[in-house]
Each structure stands twice: as structure tokens, then as C-alpha cells.
């Protein structure tokens, strides 16, 4: 074989091998996707092709302008979200680093060398001549390592999957922070509604106290009834202080979520509490697959799969094509005027012959990491299913409980009216009035707590589904 033909074959080898890519091609791991949810109640699963997508912020179902402003501010100013955004930019930069490995590299160099020695006959006599000199040199080296076995392609594939995973992590953090802020906001609204209930009850207790004092002044009841009525009213004043403290703590928590100091944040008092949003009649069970944490885990599996191919390329030789050219001369001024030109061109082949089992260990490590990511993906999916089931079960049972509790409120209010009238007539003691009033107050408070729990469960369901359930219009 002639030297020219050998060179052509050697130069054609990278073009032939560019189509080779080591490692397994990726396929999404199977997960146990249910046809329906256990506690879906009136829900009906739709086929994947009809899967709705949200066309509005998930918190729009609560129709609260203040909540809308707060949710948007959380997405812009929260420091945990800012950290996730920085990690996303890092993942994007890493992709550019990996792409650069497959590009032509150009390096410039310059140097000066001083050399010396001795020469002449006589086997090292003292009269021998000395040899020394200085060499100046500038040059450029162009090199390219063809991606023979797909190492760069697999690494780029892994980096793209890592970018997708980082973007999903960002979405998951944003969703989690917004859900936490929404929960705190709803708790504040529930506290305000509870405060309003407390004020109404205190007014009723104050009227009862005035009635008891009048009855006592008329000699119809004992002093113990007055003390008991005063004690009942005072207990509500104590509860009001606790509510004020809880509200301040919730405001401080929201302020930090908004990325600002607590001193600069506050919510106006309001007795309004948005009703629990209606659960849609139809929703696909496969909607769970869009959860950001599920997407992030699946993309980590894809990245781990690509890294197996990167590890397998270590068993194959690398070829580097390089060319070098430059100028050299004994004096720096001659380097600019009449320099000597030199060049070199040729391929270099590198292959690791023995590494003590390192490549085998790295390959086994990447395969184990892939198995770990698959298990993590499936666990994340199962956790999401559990969270959806929990939220659905809570909504279903709380809706039934709300109906029963409202009936209890009506009975307690009727009982209080009857007992109060009997007390006015002097037929019963204030103890029975106190018991009836406390039952009414407790029943109303429990009904309010159930309503707040239904709101919290709806936010949990929205979060568990990955951010909203509104079908596309």
C-alpha cells in the first residue's frame, strides 16, 4: 500500500466513524400510570390525546386579585427561585462547554530558548570551543479530535437532559414556593374570618353578660352566673390575642417568600374567605406526568443513560488531527524581517492499553447511576400519585363533613335560642346558657376550619397535579 493511499484511508476514518455512537439509546422507563384515581369521586379519566393543559395561572380559580399579585411577585422575587434560575444558567453553560470539546481548537504560542554546550577535539581538553545560542519562536497549532465514537454527542445529550431537568427543578421550586405562599395567604384569610366570628361571638357574650347582671341585680340569679359569664367573655379576649399573634407570624413568613423583610409587608384585615373552587368533572389521570418534579426525575434518567455511552467510549482509540506552523530565528529582529518558517501536519492515535480496571469500574458506576435514577423517577411518580390521592380523599371527605357540620351549626343555634329564652324566664341556670353558647361558637368555628381545610386541600391538589387543572379553552 502506498503512503498516499494510507494517508487517504487515515483521513477518511473519522468520516466513517462519525456515525458511530456508543451506549444505549434512551427510552422512557415504564411507570404504573392508573386509568383512574381511587378517590376521584365525580372525576372521569380522559385519554391521553385529550389531556388538557392550563391556560391561566392555577391560582385564578380563587378569583382573588391580591393573591394574584402576590403569586406573581413570588415568582419574581423569591430567593429560592433565584437560586434555581442560577442553576439553570449553569446547566446551559455546561452544554456549551461540552459542545466546545468537539470543535477545532486553535492555540498560539511564543517562546525563547537559550542553549549552550562545549565542543572540539581532544576528549574534553580545556582548550575546546564553546557552543551556545538563543532561538526565538512564534507559532500556531490547529487541532481537532473527531468524535469517532460519539463521546461528545452523548455528553451533549446528557447536558441537554440536564438542562431540561434544571428547568423542571426551577418550575418545581417556583410551584412549591407559590403553593406555600398561597397556603399562608389562605390561613391569614381564615384567621381574619375567625376573628370576625370571634368579634360577633364576643358581642353576643357581652349581651349575655348584661342580661346576667340585670338578672343578678333583680335577685333572680346568683353571683356565680355573673362570674361565669364574665369568664366566658374573657376567654374569647385571650383567644383573640392568640389569633393576632398567628396572623403576624403568617405575614412574616409570606414576606420572606416574597423576598423582602417582614417589616415592609402587611395584609389588610378582611372577613372574606374565598369558597373552595369546584373540582372539574373530567380530568386525565395522565396529567400527573407533567408535574415538574416528575419531569425533572425523568430527564435525570435520560442524562444518566447518555453518560453510559460516554463511559463506553473510553475503550476505543482517539485520533487527533493537528497542524502546526510558525516562525523561528536566532535574533528577535530577524524574526520580524527574514524568519525561518516551519510547519508540521499529521494525525495522532491514542489508546489506553492498561488502566488497572478503571474504565470497567467507571462503566459499572454509570450503569448503577442509571438504575438509581430509574428508581428515583418511579418513586417520584408514585409519590405524586399518593399526593393526588391524598388531596382527592381530603376534598371528598371534607365536602361531606361540611354538609354535616352545617347541620350541626343550625341545631346549635336553635338550641341556643331555646335555652336563652328559658333563662330569661328563669327556668334554667346560666350554666345551660353557657354550654349552649359555647356549642354554637365551637360549631361555627369548626365549620370555618373545615372550609379552610378544603381550601388547603384544593391547593394541595393543584400542586400535586403539577400546577392547575383548568382545561384549555
Short key terms for the protein model shown above:
473 residues, four-stranded antiparallel β-sheet, elongated
Write the layout of secondary structure elements.
Elements: H1 3-17, H2 65-77, H3 79-100, E1 105-119, E2 129-144, H4 151-217, H5 223-257, H6 292-312, E3 318-329, H7 332-337, E4 340-350, H8 358-424, H9 430-464
Antiparallel strand pairs: 1-2, 2-3, 3-4
Helix pairs in contact: 2-4, 3-4, 4-5, 4-6, 4-9, 6-8, 8-9
In short:
The protein has 473 residues and is α+β, with helices and mostly antiparallel strands. The protein is 59% helix and 11% strand. The protein is built from 9 helices and 4 strands; from the N terminus they run H-H-H-E-E-H-H-H-E-H-E-H-H.
Amino acid at each position: 500500500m502506498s503512503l498516499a493511499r494510507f494517508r487517504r484511508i487515515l483521513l477518511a476514518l473519522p468520516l466513517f466513524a462519525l456515525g458511530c455512537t456508543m451506549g444505549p439509546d434512551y427510552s422512557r422507563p415504564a411507570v404504573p400510570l392508573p386509568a383512574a384515581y381511587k378517590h376521584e369521586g365525580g372525576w372521569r379519566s380522559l385519554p391521553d390525546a385529550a389531556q388538557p393543559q392550563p391556560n391561566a395561572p392555577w391560582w385564578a380559580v380563587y378569583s382573588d386579585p391580591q393573591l394574584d399579585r402576590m403569586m406573581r411577585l413570588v415568582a419574581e422575587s423569591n430567593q429560592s427561585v433565584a437560586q434555581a434560575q442560577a442553576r439553570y444558567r449553569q446547566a446551559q453553560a455546561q452544554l456549551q462547554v461540552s459542545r466546545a470539546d468537539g470543535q477545532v481548537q486553535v492555540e498560539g504560542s511564543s517562546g525563547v530558548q537559550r542553549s549552550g554546550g562545549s565542543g572540539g577535539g581532544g576528549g574534553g581538553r580545556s582548550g575546546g570551543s564553546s557552543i551556545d545560542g538563543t532561538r526565538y519562536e512564534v507559532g500556531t497549532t490547529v487541532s481537532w479530535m473527531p468524535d469517532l465514537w460519539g463521546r461528545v454527542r452523548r455528553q451533549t445529550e446528557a447536558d441537554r437532559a440536564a438542562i431540561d431537568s434544571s428547568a423542571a427543578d426551577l418550575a418545581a421550586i417556583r410551584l412549591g414556593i407559590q403553593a406555600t405562599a398561597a397556603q399562608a395567604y389562605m390561613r391569614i384569610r381564615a384567621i381574619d374570618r375567625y376573628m370576625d366570628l370571634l368579634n360577633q361571638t364576643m358581642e353576643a357574650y357581652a349581651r349575655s353578660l348584661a342580661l346576667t347582671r340585670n338578672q343578678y341585680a333583680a335577685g333572680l340569679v346568683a353571683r356565680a352566673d355573673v362570674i361565669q359569664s364574665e369568664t366566658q367573655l374573657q376567654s374569647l379576649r385571650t383567644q383573640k390575642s392568640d389569633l393576632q399573634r398567628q396572623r403576624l407570624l403568617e405575614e412574616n413568613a409570606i414576606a420572606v417568600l416574597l423576598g423582602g423583610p417582614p417589616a415592609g409587608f402587611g395584609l389588610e384585615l378582611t372577613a372574606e374567605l374565598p369558597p373552595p373552587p369546584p373540582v372539574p368533572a373530567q380530568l386525565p389521570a395522565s396529567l400527573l406526568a407533567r408535574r415538574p418534579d416528575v419531569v425533572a426525575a425523568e430527564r435525570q434518567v435520560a442524562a444518566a443513560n447518555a453518560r453510559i455511552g460516554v463511559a463506553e467510549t473510553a475503550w476505543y482509540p482517539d485520533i487527533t488531527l493537528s497542524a502546526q506552523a510558525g516562525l523561528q530565528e536566532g535574533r528577535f529582529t530577524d524574526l520580524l524581517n527574514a524568519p525561518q518558517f516551519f510547519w508540521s501536519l499529521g494525525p495522532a492515535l491514542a489508546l489506553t492499553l492498561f488502566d488497572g480496571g478503571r474504565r470497567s469500574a467507571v462503566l459499572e458506576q454509570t450503569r448503577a447511576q442509571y438504575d438509581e435514577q430509574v428508581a428515583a423517577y418511579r418513586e417520584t411518580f408514585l409519590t405524586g400519585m399518593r399526593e393526588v390521592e391524598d388531596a382527592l380523599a381530603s376534598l371528598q371527605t371534607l365536602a361531606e363533613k361540611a354538609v354535616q357540620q352545617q347541620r350541626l351549626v343550625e341545631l346549635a343555634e336553635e338550641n341556643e335560642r331555646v335555652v336563652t329564652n328559658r333563662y330569661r324566664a328563669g327556668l334554667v341556670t346560666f350554666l345551660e346558657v353557657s354550654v349552649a353558647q359555647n356549642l354554637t361558637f365551637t360549631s361555627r368555628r369548626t365549620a370555618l376550619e373545615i372550609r379552610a381545610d378544603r381550601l388547603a386541600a384544593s391547593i394541595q391538589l393543584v400542586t400535586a397535579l403539577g400546577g392547575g387543572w383548568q382545561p384549555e379553552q
